[in-house]
Amino acid sequence: MIKACRSVLGDGVPLDPREVFIRDPGSLEGTFPTMADRCKMDTSPISEKVRQIAEKELRETPELVKESLAKLRELIKADGKIKINSDDDNLMIIFLRPCKYYPESALELIKRTLKFKEDNGSLLNGLQPETEKEAMLTSDVVNVLVDRDQNGRRVLINKCGATWDPKKVNTDQIFRIFYLVHLAAMLEPESQVAGVVVILDFEGLGMKQVSGFSPTFSMRLLNFIQEAMPLRLKEVHIVKQPFLFNMVWTMFKPLVRAKLKGRLFFHGDKMSSLHKHMDPNYLPADYGGKLPKINYTAADWFPEIEKCRKHIADWDTFKLEK
């Protein structure tokens, strides 16, 4: 059986779920893939289109990769306090790509990442998919689009409005789910290069949700994405936010630095505004796109998170020695 279920083809053109099918060679008829087929991580090597992005934006060439890997290992060894598997090329590249192959910058990113993990040990120590299995299976607060956008970027959705019941899934749980998703995404070579986009959907936001946020959560989340996330965060889009959103934004705004501020966009209900950044041909109808409405949740992605168990367990052992 040939499965046409990758989010991105070799030429970087996303598959339209209205056209994707699985064809059994023994049958004359094609059948539409299940969500289990579509909610898949893509750990295959980068396509030619994405390779060109890596070379243009990240300076990535075979020669520089080899040189930067060697230098980063030297720096880690010289530091003497970083406990991480520096012999793993793939792991080191996770840190080198967002730093455009500058070893010194990658070393600092490693330190910040491990320091963040240490500072938030009460939430992150021993974290495994099972930790938030119930929340991922029963809520629809965090999701990942099965289709990448026009630039090959992964798109994460966080529904912060009426969909979210803080009494069932609190902000600590939301953060842990974010963290698990980012641990999985960093294993996708195309996501490492093309980066990720976040859509924060505040539709139906009420006082119940507003009271669920806290300055601690705001500080933790922004510190993570601005300092300690080894992924290229390209854009954050805030959509469908009502006037009440201003109360939430008051907590976040003072913590947003210049770099993130330049990648943060507010659209309200104007999906045409969102489409100036994200091509509607690659978006679901939920956001004014031409693809079908989202009919899957984090529950459909959970088996893929489970497959990352070893990586997540290894990540838990990385630390800064005292």
What does this structure look like?
- With 322 residues, the protein is α/β, with parallel strands linked by helices.
- Helices cover 43% and strands 11% of the residues.
- The protein contains 16 helices and ten strands.
- It has helices at residues 35-38, 48-58, 62-79, 89-96, 103-119, 121-124, 133-138, 171-185, 189-194, 207-210, 215-227, 245-252, 258-261, 271-274, 298-306, 309-317, and strands at residues 2-3, 22-23, 30-31, 82-83, 142-144, 154-159, 196-201, 233-239, 264-268, 319-320.
- It has a five-stranded mixed sheet with strand order 5-6-7-8-9. A three-stranded antiparallel sheet has the order 1-2-3, with no helix packed on it.
- A hairpin with a 6-residue loop joins β2 (22-23) and β3 (30-31).
- The chain is globular and about 50 Å long.
- The chain starts with a strand and ends with a strand.
- It holds the Pfam family CRAL_TRIO.
- Residues 129-295 form the CRAL-TRIO domain.
Topology at a glance:
Blueprint: E1 2-3, E2 22-23, E3 30-31, H1 35-38, H2 48-58, H3 62-79, E4 82-83, H4 89-96, H5 103-119, H6 121-124, H7 133-138, E5 142-144, E6 154-159, H8 171-185, H9 189-194, E7 196-201, H10 207-210, H11 215-227, E8 233-239, H12 245-252, H13 258-261, E9 264-268, H14 271-274, H15 298-306, H16 309-317, E10 319-320
Parallel strand pairs: 6-7, 7-8, 8-9
Antiparallel strand pairs: 1-2, 2-3, 4-10, 5-6
Helix pairs in contact: 3-4, 3-5
Helix and strand run: EEEHHHEHHHHEEHHEHHEHHEHHHE
Q: How would you name the oligomeric state of the polypeptide chains in this document?
A: single chain
Mean pLDDT across all residues, rounded? Answer: 91
State Rg. Answer: 20 Å
Count of individual beta strands: 10
Structural class from helices and strands? alpha/beta
GO cellular component, one term: membrane
InterPro entries: CRAL-TRIO_dom, CRAL-TRIO_dom_sf, CRAL/TRIO_N_dom, CRAL/TRIO_N_dom_sf
GO molecular function, one term: phosphatidylinositol bisphosphate binding
Protein name: Retinaldehyde-binding protein 1
